[in-house]
Amino acid sequence: MALLEIIHASKSFGKKTILEDISFTMEQGRILGIFGRNGSGKSTLLKLLFGTLKRGNIKMRINGESVSNSEVIKNKLIGYLPQNPFLPRHLRVRDIIPIYYSGQKQQDAIFYDPEIAKIASRKVSELSHGERKYFEVLLLGHLDHPILLLDEPFTMLEPLQIAAVSRFLQKLKSTKGIIITDHYYNDVLAISDDNLVLKDGVMHQVQTEDDLRNFEYLRKQR
User: Fold this and answer.
1) In this structure, how many other beta carbons lie within 10 angstroms of the beta carbon of residue 99?
2) CA–CA separation, 186 vs 156, rounded Å?
3) d(CA 88, CA 85)
4) Entry pTM
5) The pLDDT of residue 115
């Protein structure tokens, strides 16, 4: 049984169709990469799944049960990492962790991560982009949601930070289904099990860089 089933998702803004009859499935233990050029609807799709984009058509099943996107946040079914920062800038890293986790074991899993231990005493406003993004991924990844959506988790990270996020996600996927969209396509392809590309509102299955070129996500080599 698929962990997540999306059936006939569609979304328009005025007369412009962004998503047209999108359907796909995802299983626990797998990472799904979704590619598409800017404006193709990747972030729109994630927001539609998460329920923060209310107006749109979507049928969704999680573990075989029909779910409306209005239930997703309330029932903690899907975790979502947006592109933009969301953590309070005035708080220190060590003070944010208890806001998300009450149990000591859960707190320790984040606090004693080698990368987090280095920045625990600093305010969010004092973190680099990569440090903040890594912290955000860990915070959301350790929550109990069976599905995790990540919008550009690699963008503008340093190579060592990308490697750290990749290791964490590969370990995490044993307990979740993970969807990633990011223009750092090589880093997504390196850890994804399945891949889709959005073009003209329609989803297509892809596997390789050549497939991405054929659907004009990447420029064809001369």
Assistant:
1) 11
2) 14
3) 9
4) 0.94
5) 92
